[in-house]
From TrEMBL:
<dbReference type="InterPro" id="IPR015890">
    <property type="entry name" value="Chorismate_C"/>
</dbReference>
<feature type="domain" description="Anthranilate synthase component I N-terminal">
    <location>
        <begin position="11"/>
        <end position="146"/>
    </location>
</feature>
<dbReference type="Pfam" id="PF00425">
    <property type="entry name" value="Chorismate_bind"/>
</dbReference>
<dbReference type="GO" id="GO:0046820">
    <property type="term" value="F:4-amino-4-deoxychorismate synthase activity"/>
</dbReference>
<dbReference type="GO" id="GO:0000162">
    <property type="term" value="P:L-tryptophan biosynthetic process"/>
</dbReference>
<protein>
    <submittedName>
        <fullName>Para-aminobenzoate synthase</fullName>
    </submittedName>
</protein>
<dbReference type="InterPro" id="IPR006805">
    <property type="entry name" value="Anth_synth_I_N"/>
</dbReference>
<dbReference type="Pfam" id="PF04715">
    <property type="entry name" value="Anth_synt_I_N"/>
</dbReference>
<dbReference type="InterPro" id="IPR019999">
    <property type="entry name" value="Anth_synth_I-like"/>
</dbReference>
<feature type="domain" description="Chorismate-utilising enzyme C-terminal">
    <location>
        <begin position="178"/>
        <end position="441"/>
    </location>
</feature>
<dbReference type="InterPro" id="IPR005801">
    <property type="entry name" value="ADC_synthase"/>
</dbReference>
Length: 451
């Protein structure tokens, strides 16, 4: 009996399908944009994937590793590779993702890989992942829907209820006030001046208690509509010492971290540098040209691009790493960013897990040199980053991978909500201006909660 197949289904909006699975304790929705017009003509805005009914789950934290609800021994990365090896091989398909592992590697997971000790205790799982044998793939460009996996799993479960989600007001508190933030920026600038580092990404967290009527899908809907993005994600799983507490991640990320093709081509697209869209085409072009010439923003992007070139160079063939795009302005839904691109060819015998372990956490949210920047970040920040500045990844049955940097996100872990914001600090940074820019980013997310 053939267990795996790809079947075309009648078109359904992926958001409607996600709502039908709102009662699921484990679900992964990889969302290519809040609106079809988010990035017209861009392949990054084409496909969305809904992953349900995992065959295996993994929650790794400082308290140990829990696989399929039971404590286990061993390294979380080894368990991930074993979970991937147990997946049913896929027949040839043109779908970019036909099932596999979907998960989160938090910032703390990257710290561990770089052997940086933290003074903060993180409640967020270091790694949270699940094996999804069945995926619903939505081609938003051609309005086609496919089921890859179990032939008898319906897109809408029998008892699905498409009720409108409800949102609630939440009162958040920042872990740094204005003076603390400015003092932290000055300390980073001082260390740059002493030659410790070239730059660092400084962040803070807003935190709140989860209200009794909290609806994570409602919040994600508001987030994705306000910030349509090519690498959005809604993950729901478990957290806590025993892996029995609710966890969800709501991300509206615009930044690809790493992709790995069937042919072994690695690509990363670091983003540093932001400008608003103008009120008309002429103003937008003027602001784009201003961003293109901005000395500070270009310096940030150049250093992170070099860092990522070094990171992927650890696992790519010598001479294969190139930078086909450097500091080019790309338009997104509401802003323009400076985006670079680094490519290489993965060494024979290595896989997506080796690539992740060589590069986490993302260079665009750490600094340069990476390890020393992370040490300084831990000294000046006042709380653990959690999921923020980590990576959401999908690794297909065929070994391909795509991943994003967790930014513009909301995290729910047990009874706490967290929102992270930040920005790159260089020698040219003005502390007061950095605070204003950080607050602006934070307010855009806080508006989701009516704050």
């Amino acid at each position: 009996m053939r267990l795996f197949s790809v079947t075309e289904l009648p078109w359904m909006d992926p958001w409607t399908a996600l709502q039908a699975w709102k009662a699921a304790s484990w679900v992964a929705f990889l969302d290519s944009g809040g609106t079809p017009a988010a990035l017209p003509g861009d392949e990054r805005a084409r496909w969305s994937f809904l992953c349900v009914e995992p065959s295996e789950t993994l929650v790794s934290s400082q308290d140990g590793v829990i696989r399929n609800g039971r404590p286990v021994t061993g390294n979380a990365w080894d368990h991930l590779q074993d979970m991937h090896a147990r997946l049913l091989p896929v027949e040839h398909t043109d779908l970019p993702f036909a099932g596999g592992l979907v998960g989160l590697a938090s910032y703390a997971a990257g710290m561990a890989l770089e052997e940086v000790m933290s003074r903060h205790r993180a409640e967020t799982p270091d790694i949270l992942a699940a094996s999804y044998e069945t995926v619903f793939a939505f081609d938003r460009l051609e309005r086609r829907c496919f089921r890859a996996g179990k032939v008898n799993l319906p897109l809408l479960p029998d008892k699905s209820v498409l009720t409108p989600p409800n949102s609630a007001r939440v009162h958040f508190q920042p872990d740094m006030d204005r003076e603390q933030w400015i003092s932290a920026v000055r300390e980073v600038v001082r260390l740059i001046g002493e030659g410790d580092i070239f730059q660092a990404n400084l962040t803070l967290r807003w935190q709140a208690v989860v209200p009794s009527n909290f609806d994570d899908l409602a919040v994600y809907d508001l987030l994705r509509q306000g910030s349509p993005a090519p690498f959005g994600a809604f993950l729901r799983g478990r957290c806590g010492r025993n892996g029995d507490r609710p966890f969800s991640l709501l991300s509206a990320s615009v930044e690809r971290f790493l992709s790995l093709s069937r042919e072994g081509i690695v690509e990363t697209r670091p983003i540093k540098g932001t400008a608003p869209m103008g009120g008309n085409a002429t103003e937008t072009l003027r602001l784009a040209e201003q961003l293109r010439r901005d000395e500070k923003e270009n310096a940030e992007n150049l250093m992170i691009t070099d860092l990522m070139r070094n990171d992927i160079g650890r696992v790519c063939d010598i001479g294969s790493v190139s930078v086909p795009q450097l500091c080019e302005v790309e338009p997104f839904a509401h802003v323009q960013h400076l985006v670079s691109c680094v490519r290489g060819r993965l060494k024979s015998g290595l896989d997506a897990f080796d690539l992740l372990r060589a590069t986490l956490p993302p260079g665009s949210v750490t600094g340069a040199p990476k390890k020393r920047a992370m040490e300084i970040i831990d000294q000046v920040e006042l709380s653990a980053r959690g999921a923020y500045c980590g990576s959401v990844f999908r690794i297909g049955r065929d070994g391909t991978m795509d991943s994003s940097v967790v930014i513009r996100s909301v995290e729910r872990c047990d009874d706490r909500l967290r929102i992270g914001v930040g920005g790159g600090i260089t020698w040219l940074s003005d502390p007061a201006r950095e605070y204003d820019e950080m607050r602006l980013k934070g307010e855009a997310l806080l508006k989701v909660f009516g704050a």
